[in-house]
Amino acid sequence: MMEILIVGGTGFIGKALQKTLDGILVPYKVLSRTQKSARHIFWDPDKHQLDHTSLGSITHIINLAGAGIADQRWTKQRKEELKTSRIDSTEFLYKECSKHCPKLIGYIGISGVNAFGFKEDILYNESHPFGEDFLSQLVAQWEQAHRLFEQLPSFSIFRLGMVLSSGGGAYRKIAAPMKFYMGAVPGSGKQLVPWIHLDDVIGLTLKVLQGDALGLIHVVSDNSSMRDLTKTIAQKERSIILIPNIPAPIIRLIFGEMGLLLTESIQIDHTKLAQSGYNVRFNNLSDLLYEKEN
Fold it and tell me: What Cα–Cα distance (Å) separates residue 85 from each residue in 65, 92, 142?
């Protein structure tokens, strides 16, 4: 019988995944620093603490752990937190599960498509080498940690584009000022943003859990311009863009190095996803307009 261990279950994707698993009656447990329900298993990876007494029945791990990339400026301290919350926690997870999860047969880890630097004239596929910037090297080390589980019968790494859903995440951050007609397009607006809808992340996860291991895969529906993305969200929020584009230097002044996520272009090849047999539900930004409210 399948039983899933969710790591990072309190985040945007983790909450949606739990709701879906509840709906289809798939048993799961969640690693958590605070035990708020019977499903929670205590762990504190910083202190190398984990209650392994409930791990014996786990067959699959979905590792969504990691401090939010765009939640805070990338100070030296924050960069270290971004690393430890992904790399150190995954290495500790492997150490514990290799001893206490005898039934483990499957693993899904997430990373991000910002793994190559920013050269908008290149269509990056899964075989392109990593870039040398901070974010690219973070992804490289993150995926190396995931690969500790690579010997399992089912192993996948999802390189996610911007995960969109009106229920939270990047969408809500972009939409927040639109309530007051203060929304604006960052940078030139021409920069490309690889994206995927939350429902498709969950759908692909279920497909892999059913036995279709994918290895490393770019989980992206399309590469859309920041202008089109912002205007589509404004339309869904019944707002309009009145403020001129925010110049890239201003964004860098406000957000520091993290501002690159808003102003730089990256184009991601998603051929492998198209050939995987998974039927992507949200292929175009216009599909967001007809999304059911969460």
Answer: 7, 11, 10
Alpha-carbon distance values, 285 to 17, 193, 197, 203, 226 (Å): 22, 11, 9, 18, 11
**Count of domains forming the chain:** 1
Please tell me the distance from the alpha carbon of residue 34 to that of residue 232, in angstroms, as a whole number: 38
Domain enclosing residue 122, as ranges: 4-290
Reduced to 3 states, what is the DSSP secondary structure of residue 173? helix
pLDDT value of position 294: 53
CATH number of residue 269's parent domain: 3.40.50.720
Q: What is the mean pLDDT of the chain?
A: 96
Amino acid at 160: L
Are the C-beta atoms of 222 and 287 separated by less than 8 Å?
no
207 vs 218: CA distance, rounded Å = 15
Distance of alpha carbon 134 from alpha carbon 281, whole angstroms: 33
Q: Which residues contact 150 (CB under 8 A, 6 or more apart)?
A: none
> Three-state SS for 277?
coil
Query: What backbone torsions phi and psi does residue 155 show, to the nearest 5 degrees?
Result: -140, 130
Q: What is the pLDDT of residues 153-208, one digit of tens each?
A: 999 999 999 999 999 999 999 999 999 999 999 999 999 999 999 999 999 999 99
**DSSP letter string over 226-257?**
HHHHHHHHHHHTT----SPPBPHHHHHHHHGG
